């Protein structure tokens, strides 16, 4: 259950999300005391950034005109359960998390690590609110959530055994 007005809370979460994304995207100023990550950490960060862009982009594309930054589904939207939405329930948020962690890994800046962690927290709240609203709107959402992980493939879905 969402306490308070879901639209007001949704706007606050979107504002926090955008501010944290901006903190991650803005070019870091020179810091002569910081050592830039090298080698495997930097490569892994780049891979995570690219994976986040692909996963998030696929999710946004699949939603099409139903895409909204707000947790409330748009009027007339349908529940998407195929494509990337058949792998995870929230691919755009998963992409944002992957990208944020990748950015923090590639820059090595403490402020990016903090912003990535804070973004995970904001998106966790947003996902919870969004799922309440999706359950209210779509009667099939519980069955979809039963078989599909929230953010990471293989993590979080309560898969039922196949019928005998």
UniProtKB/TrEMBL annotation:
The chain crosses the membrane at residues 40-60. Its EC number is 2.1.1.100, 2.1.1.334. It is an enzyme of class 2 (transferase). It comes from the Bacteria. Keywords: Membrane, Methyltransferase, Transferase, Transmembrane, Transmembrane helix. GO terms for biological process: methylation. This is Methyltransferase family protein. Gene3D superfamilies: 1.20.120.1630. It comes from Georgenia faecalis. One of its GO terms (molecular function) is protein C-terminal S-isoprenylcysteine carboxyl O-methyltransferase activity. PANTHER family: BLL3993 PROTEIN.
């Amino acid at each position: 259950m969402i306490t308070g007005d879901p639209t007001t809370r949704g706007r606050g979460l979107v504002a926090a999300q955008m501010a944290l994304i901006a903190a991650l995207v803005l070019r870091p100023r020179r810091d002569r005391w910081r050592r830039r990550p090298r080698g495997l950490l930097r490569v892994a960060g780049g891979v995570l950034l690219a994976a986040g862009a692909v996963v998030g982009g696929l999710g946004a594309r699949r939603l099409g005109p139903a895409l909204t930054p707000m947790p409330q589904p748009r009027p007339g939207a349908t529940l998407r359960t195929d494509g990337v939405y058949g792998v995870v329930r929230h691919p755009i948020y998963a992409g944002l998390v992957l990208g944020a962690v990748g950015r923090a890994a590639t820059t090595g800046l403490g402020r990016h690590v903090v912003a990535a962690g804070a973004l995970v927290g904001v998106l966790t709240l947003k996902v919870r609110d969004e799922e309440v609203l999706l359950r209210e709107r779509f009667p099939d959402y519980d069955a979809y959530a039963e078989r599909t992980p929230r953010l990471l493939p293989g993590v979080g879905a309560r898969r039922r055994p196949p019928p005998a």
